[in-house]
UniProtKB/TrEMBL annotation, chain A:
It comes from Phycicoccus elongatus Lp2. InterPro entries: NADH_UbQ_OxRdtase-like_20kDa, NADH_UQ_OxRdtase_20Kd_su. NDH-1 shuttles electrons from NADH, via FMN and iron-sulfur (Fe-S) centers, to quinones in the respiratory chain. The immediate electron acceptor for the enzyme in this species is believed to be a menaquinone. Couples the redox reaction to proton translocation (for every two electrons transferred, four hydrogen ions are translocated across the cytoplasmic membrane), and thus conserves the redox energy in a proton gradient. GO terms for cellular component: plasma membrane; respiratory chain complex I. This is NADH-quinone oxidoreductase subunit B. [4Fe-4S] cluster binds at residues 37-38, 103, 132. Its main location: membrane. NCBIfam families: nuoB_fam, PRK06411.1. Residues 37-146 form the NADH:ubiquinone oxidoreductase-like 20kDa subunit domain. It catalyses: a quinone + NADH + 5 H(+)(in) = a quinol + NAD(+) + 4 H(+)(out). The keyword Phosphoprotein does not apply. HAMAP family: NDH1_NuoB (MF_01356).
From TrEMBL, chain B:
The gene is nuoI. [4Fe-4S] cluster 1 binds at residues 72, 75, 78, 129. It comes from Phycicoccus elongatus Lp2. Its cofactor is [4Fe-4S] cluster. This is NADH-quinone oxidoreductase subunit I. Residues 207-231 are annotated as: Disordered. The keyword Membrane applies. It comes from the Bacteria. It is found in: Cell membrane.
């Protein structure tokens, strides 16, 4: 695609966004990127019983240049990280990433030096899918969520604006050490007014 | 091809009428067409959801006693058992004097969070739970687009109120003590509890799930107060 990216804002762009979103979401070719046990469930989705072809994902592309969607299935080791990034870079735009399973999403139970604590440290992730491993229906659910996201994605100048806004938000993000706490830690000590708990 | 004589060895070249030969190449579509009227043997996931196994390890649920009080006593054994460190629990003391009673007995789980991007659904937390407060449901549709969204908090994990239940905080059923709850003697909320909730109770369930204690730093203890009084 190329022409639709050059159209000015407000010029048939919203209708075109819908059409292009519909076309794009219905013809995603996933790249094979099975790294561990989640890959078995990913392969199960390709079998006739689950039949990923119903979603227009006819074939798992063994070459990244013909793929639109990267399903990172399994834990990413530090040694695999540059490979993941290279395969992602070789994919043509527009491209999406599903981080399948807890290991790819956050490191999962492998909270150690060997495993990248979430593949989003390396590549942008569109959909996080919990599960260890997720059952095939869960992957299909993630794909449907991604379809929804693609359907509502922006085009042309709108896309540039959205990307800029996302970048600003990312630059403005505070490190977790400076984030507001999710809850008050000292509440139990003040929960009984009028009574000294330490007395 | 041109040979009209049948060759039994290969089975090919079945001679037929003119019409038979004409439609032979598209006869395969007949199979495709007739399949449309057959029962579907494959998964039709988004439209038809096959039920999971009854003991499927899905999303967690924090259960309640029949009168609405929470079963969780904030012991943190689930967090301790978790091999992936996915659970965060902070307990706090129930206090009848200030109207903070979320569970029968001494303590309740004030903060309860499960990180579904760490949880491996092994069920060790369920085994560890001494009060059967934490169980698993068969729900599995959890995919989301951000990591923060997948940390489920207590208000998302708590079981919805069913018939006969009242939104905590509220006192224990009259005449009952903690042990009676676990012996199954409490079957539903009593009229006295109902009255208490109407007087002092929390209208907004979301507010009750949130960590309580904002107003309680104010002095004036000794009076039975609920959250609703301060509004």
């Amino acid at each position: 695609m190329g022409l639709e990216e050059k159209l000015p804002a407000g010029f048939v762009l919203t209708t075109l966004e819908n059409v292009v979103g519909y076309m794009r979401k219905a013809s995603i070719w996933p790249a094979t990127f099975g790294l561990a046990c989640c890959a078995i469930e990913m392969m199960a989705v390709g079998t006739p019983d689950y039949d990923i072809a119903r979603f227009g994902m006819e074939r798992f592309s063994a070459t990244p240049r013909q793929a639109d969607l990267m399903i990172v299935a399994g834990r990413v080791s530090q040694k695999m990280a540059p490979v993941v990034r290279q395969v992602y870079d070789q994919m043509a735009n527009p491209k999406w990433v599903i981080s399948m399973g807890v290991c790819a999403s956050s490191g999962g139970m492998f909270n150690n030096y060997a495993i990248v604590q979430g593949v989003d440290h390396i590549i942008p992730v569109d959909i996080y899918l919990p599960g260890c491993p997720p059952r095939p229906e869960m992957l299909l659910n993630a794909i449907i969520e991604l379809h929804d996201q693609i359907q509502h994605s922006k085009l042309g100048v709108n896309r540039v604006a959205a990307a800029r806004a996302a970048e600003q938000a990312a630059l403005g993000a505070v490190p977790t050490s400076l984030m507001a706490p999710t809850h008050e830690h000292h509440a139990p000590l003040t929960a009984t007014p009028g009574r000294n708990l330490l007395a | 091809m041109a040979d009209a004589k049948p060759t039994p060895a290969t089975g090919e070249g079945k001679s037929g009428s003119f019409l038979g030969d004409l439609f032979a190449p598209i006869a395969g579509f007949g199979v495709t067409f007739s399949t449309m009227f057959r029962k579907v043997a494959t998964e039709e996931y988004p439209e038809v959801k096959r039920p999971t196994a009854p003991r499927f390890h899905g999303r967690h649920q924090l259960n309640r006693h029949p009168d609405g009080l929470e079963k969780c006593v904030g012991c943190e054994l689930c967090a301790w058992a978790c091999p992936a460190d996915a659970i965060l629990v902070e307990g706090a003391s129930n206090n009848d004097a200030t109207g903070e009673r979320y569970s029968p007995g001494e303590r309740y789980g004030r903060v309860y969070q499960i990180n579904y991007l760490r949880c491996i659904f092994c069920g060790l937390c369920i085994e560890a739970c001494p009060t059967r407060a934490l169980t698993m449901t068969n729900e599995y549709e959890l995919a989301d687009s951000s990591r923060a969204e997948l940390i489920f908090t207590k208000d998302q994990l708590l079981a919805p109120l069913q018939k006969g239940m009242l939104q905590p905080p509220h006192p224990m059923a009259d005449g009952m003590e903690e042990r009676d709850y676990f012996l199954g003697k409490v079957t539903q909320a009593t009229p006295a509890q109902q009255e208490w909730v109407e007087t002092y109770g929390v209208d907004d369930p979301a507010a009750a799930g949130a960590p309580a204690a904002k107003h309680r730093t104010a002095p004036g203890a000794g009076v039975t107060r609920g959250k609703g009084v301060d509004r």
